Amino acid sequence: MPVDLWLNAPLAESATRAARLRDLGVDGVFTFEGAHDVFAPLTLAATAGTDIMTNVAMAFPRSPMHLAHTAWDLQALSGGRFRLGLGSQIRPHIEKRYGSVWSEPVERMRDAVLAVQAILRAWQHGERLDYRGRFWQHTLMPPQFDPGPNPFGAPPVLVGALGPRMTAMAAEVADGLLVMPFNTERHFRERTLAAVGKGRGDSTRPFEIIVEAIVAMGDTDEELATARRAVRNLLAFYGSTPAYRPVLEVEGWADLQPELNLLSKQGRWREMAGLIDDTMVDALTVSGTPAACAEQIRTRFGDTASRVCCYFPGYQVSDDAIAALVAALHS
User: Fold this and answer.
1) Model pLDDT for residues 185-237, shown as the tens digit of each residue
2) What pTM, to 2 d.p., does this model score?
3) Tell me, what DSSP letter sits at residue 278?
4) Residue 224: how many CB atoms within 10 A of its CB?
5) CA torsion 233→235→236→241, rounded to 10°?
6) Helix or strand holding residue 271 (H, E)
7) Contact predicate 199/169, CB 8 Å
8) What would the pLDDT profile of 235-271 be if each residue is shown by its tens digit?
9) Could you give phi then psi for residue 306, rounded to 5 degrees?
10) Helix (H, G, I), strand (E, B) or coil at 252
11) How many whole angstroms separate alpha carbon 46 and alpha carbon 48?
């Protein structure tokens, strides 16, 4: 199974780190909307010879035209190795952090994907740009602003989704699904795949499923304990968000979500992590030695996912451990 890793490095070291990960056997690198820009590191990493991907870039605060131009250039710069992964975020972040508009997220995301795809087709195939959606309209493309056909083809547009409606929509119109990392095998198989099937229907259009796994990995008991403590903090943060309640619900943990949410509003972060027990860590992450983590990833996702994004939040992983995990997933 191909493996992508979070490009977690200072901006100036993005190209060097991507090349190092390539040498360790990693197939690609991804970025997400955190404390830094989602596209800048990929611009530097684009020539490292690995696949590059946003997982994810927020669609709603950006114009589809901006997204299309950036995706076009990264596709050319990387030699056809770029995937544009888009996400919706939750209302408080879109309105209060980005200062943008949040409404009807599924339909707004559908419109964003279709608009970006229409722009890419216009450039690639010389079609007249005439996209008229509910939220975005793009009807002007003078030759001076048309980059012309991309020698590597138009980049694929993927959607990050968790809920059934967003997942089904992604399966209907996007080129792939980015499965959110706060997930369990049961939720993935019972709800995510069911929604994909609903959205796909009888379609034979190519479509890829890329999963993201939160990994708590260590070769020694001490390393593993450190990793599991770190991922507990992230799981508590995710679990406090109402959008992630369905994952807890399918496992019988729905009552935990409002409790975590209340503690988060009070800033009691340490207490939140204490509510995430070992059973939850085992279900929501893959955990163990590199070989054990690879086996868990294959068992949960190997028969349905095209590749996996591995995420090591809040703790350091050695390059030797990364190489061992990648080798095990490639075997």
Assistant:
1) 999 999 999 999 999 999 999 999 999 999 999 999 999 999 999 999 999 99
2) 0.95
3) H
4) 17
5) 140
6) helix 269-274
7) yes
8) 999 999 998 999 999 999 999 999 999 999 999 988 9
9) -85, -25
10) coil
11) 6
Both tokens of 91, joined, read: 């209302």
Structure letter (DSSP) for residue 98: S
Q: Which residues does residue 263 pair with via DSSP β-bridges, in sequence order?
A: none
Instruction: Answer whether 80's CB lies under 8 Å from 44's CB.
Output: no
Phi, psi dihedrals of residue 316, rounded to the nearest 5°:
-95, 135
Indicate the DSSP class of residue 13.
G
3-state SS, one letter per residue, for 145-173: HCCCCCCCCCCCEEEEECCHHHHHHHHHH
Query: Rounded distance, CA 135 to CA 111, Å?
Result: 7
CB 29 within 8 A of CB 6: yes
C-alpha 35 chain-centroid distance: 16
The structure tokens 């955190």 sit at 34
- Alpha carbons within 13 angstroms on the beta-carbon side of residue 301 total 30
Residues 6+ apart with CB under 8 A from 10: none
Look up residue 22 and give its two tokens: 């390539």
Contacts 24+ apart (CB under 8 A), 327-330: 327/25, 328/290, 328/291, 328/293, 328/294, 328/295, 329/1, 329/3, 329/294, 329/297, 329/298, 330/1, 330/3, 330/25
